[in-house]
Amino acid sequence: MTSDRKHLQTALGLAAAGLPVLPLRRGKVPFGNCPACAQNACGGRPNMKDPGPCQCPAVCHAWAAATTDPAVITSPAWARAWHLAVAVAYHPGGAGLTVVDLDNPAAVAWARQNLPPTRTVPTTRGEHWIYMGAMRSVNGVREGVDIKSTMAYARWRGPGTGATTALPNTVRALAVKEPVRQAPHAVTVAALAGGGECRHRSPSYLERGIAMAEQRIADARSAVHSTVYRTFLAVLSTHGRCGCLTEDHIARLFTAAQTKGESPRHCADAWTNARAKLGL
């Protein structure tokens, strides 16, 4: 059996068992977006928690492409990806699972002392501990330990051994303390041309709009990139043509996005894509 056929059969078997799957290319990473979805110009891919505008049938948007639909998995749009695939991955959160990724022997030793036993899958450098229950994904909760669940993917390495047990509070607690992030970087984006005064109502209307946009981004629990894009789009659709947005307003929006984990480049891309969508 050829490798692409083997990966396809593995994916179909996992999908039938309820695991949303996707192919991984060389480097064991998801395939890049198609031209229509490049740099998230489409605004994101639909998923079960936060439907977006993208209806692309290709293997785009990383974990969000994962599916249990055999018609999609065997579709012509996915055929080339399977031909080039080097591995199969799955979206743990989409199956109601959490993977504790232990990346070295020290992390495995820590888990054996501190976490309840569950299904264990050996990896190249450590182990995956799989629990029943979904939670948010967080990398670097401690040295060599990542949590992969919602909005993440894990490489399929086999069924493992042991019974899958319920997600314990000891694992949930690992995500309570945010991993250390770098301070938001300043991103220079020129304010739009205009009179500098909000012609819709009053300066307080603009201030409320920016504050609401910051809060909307801060409240995002999933699909953060899509939320950032749509929030930028909403602000620009209201204030983009009157020119009342200053560089300070834009910096506030970018800071809110970076606080949720968006990179400076992704912020700039989302802003540029929102402007292009509105023809600004």
Strand and helix layout:
Layout: H1 3-16, E1 21-25, E2 29-30, H2 70-73, H3 76-84, E3 87-90, E4 97-102, H4 105-114, E5 119-122, E6 127-132, E7 138-142, E8 145-148, E9 154-155, E10 165-166, H5 169-174, H6 203-218, H7 224-239, H8 247-259, H9 264-278
Parallel strand pairs: 6-10
Antiparallel strand pairs: 1-2, 1-3, 3-9, 4-6, 4-8, 5-6, 7-8
Shape: globular
Order of helices and strands: HEEHHEEHEEEEEEHHHHH
- Measured as a percent range, the helix fraction is 25-40%
Indicate the low-confidence ranges by residue numbers: 178-183
Main beta sheet: 6 strands, mixed
Summed up, the helix count is 9
How far the N terminus sits from the C terminus, by CA atoms, comes to 52 Å
| Structural class label | alpha+beta
Rg over C-alpha atoms, rounded to the nearest angstrom: 21 Å
Q: Estimate the strand proportion.
A: 5-15%
Q: What is the averaged pLDDT score?
A: 83
| Tally of strands | 10
Task: Tell me about this structure.
There is one protein chain. The protein is 37% helix and 14% strand. It contains nine helices and ten strands. It has helices spanning 3-16, 70-73, 76-84, 105-114, 169-174, 203-218, 224-239, 247-259, 264-278, and strands at 21-25, 29-30, 87-90, 97-102, 119-122, 127-132, 138-142, 145-148, 154-155, 165-166. The strands form two sheets. Strands 4, 5, 6, 7, 8 and 10 form a six-stranded mixed β-sheet that branches. Strands 2-1-3-9 form a four-stranded antiparallel β-sheet. It is globular, with a radius of gyration of 21 Å.
